[in-house]
Amino acid sequence: MRRLAFVGIVCCLVGLAVPLVGREFRVDTCCEPASRVEVEVVGDERGTLPLFWPERGGRWDSGFLQGTVEARPGERYRLRIRNRTGGRIGLVVAVDGRNIISGVRSYLRPSESMYVLNPGQTGVFHGWRTGLSRENRFYFTSAADSYAGAWGDTSRLGTIEVAAFQERVRFRRLEPSPCPPCFDKAKGKVAPSVAQESRAGCVMPERDSRPGTGFGEEVFSRVQEIEFETESFPVERQVIRYEWPGSRRRYEPPPRYLPEDDRSGFTPPPPRR
Q1: 128 belongs to a structural domain
Q2: Residue 150 within any structural domain of the chain
Q3: Is residue 148 part of a domain?
Q4: Do the Cβ atoms of 96 and 119 come closer than 8 Å?
Q5: DSSP characters for 171-182?
Q6: For the CA atoms of 4, 39, 133, 147, what is the dihedral angle to 10 degrees?
């Protein structure tokens, strides 16, 4: 199925896109990196947020979970995602269960709006996309103030999910080849660090135990639409959780979900309370 995807043109481009349709090429399976995409949460105040492992247990403790980062109320953050493969890759990104391009409830499917990164390219996503040249910033906030909470959809608060889709090609020939030292599998994945103690001066939100992501100020971010045909299933999924300092996991039954009716293809503003 052919569809439209998005590619950032303001990000740092490391590799060049190569047309794959109708070409024969060699796939060196022994050199595939342990992780095809690298996902980082970067705070405006603290830089790249380290991953740690909280108390075990719960439905999100699966093979997709990469770890948990510490959220601070009001801090703006961005997602930095790097394509570590030799081909173009499509990314469906959901924050609190909402697609960050369209704003609708995400199921991480190939039919959803997605970003496309060229080989080796790093994309920096500052917030909810509201047009081809603008985003509204991500920031850590309470469940009541979050973008998902504004739609009555808080079942996946505190989660950042990424599904990576390879590009569908018409002709592919696999050839065995010697594996050069292109990737050190032993060093390809950084082990999560030990949970750090809460820093002094961090104010905990009142009457809310779960963090969410708000719909912040508008910033300039230019992208363009391209055609990108995905495979039917993601080649990789990653989940990163974020929690308040010192909090413990608690899961509540999801509230009634209120569907939206927005046909622009971009994130609509949160409804007025």
Answers
A1: yes
A2: yes
A3: yes
A4: no
A5: ----------S-
A6: 100
Asked if the structure places residue 96 within a domain, the reply is yes
- Diameter over CA atoms, the chain: 61
Query: Please, which residues have CB within 8 angstroms of residue 130's CB and are 6 or more apart in sequence?
Result: 136, 218, 266, 267, 269
- Chain mean pLDDT for the chain: 74
Determine the 3-state secondary structure of 223 from DSSP. strand
Q: How far is it, in rounded angstroms, from Cα 273 to Cα 255?
A: 17
Average pLDDT for runs of 10 along the chain of length 273: 42 32 37 78 96 61 80 97 94 97 95 94 96 95 94 93 90 48 40 32 50 92 89 93 75 43 73 71
Q: Which 8-state DSSP code applies to residue 150?
A: H
By C-alpha distance, which of 204, 188, 221, 209 is closest to 78?
221
Name the phi and psi angles at 59, rounded to 5.
-70, -20
User: What residues have CB less than 8 Å from 251, skipping those under 6 apart?
Assistant: 58, 59
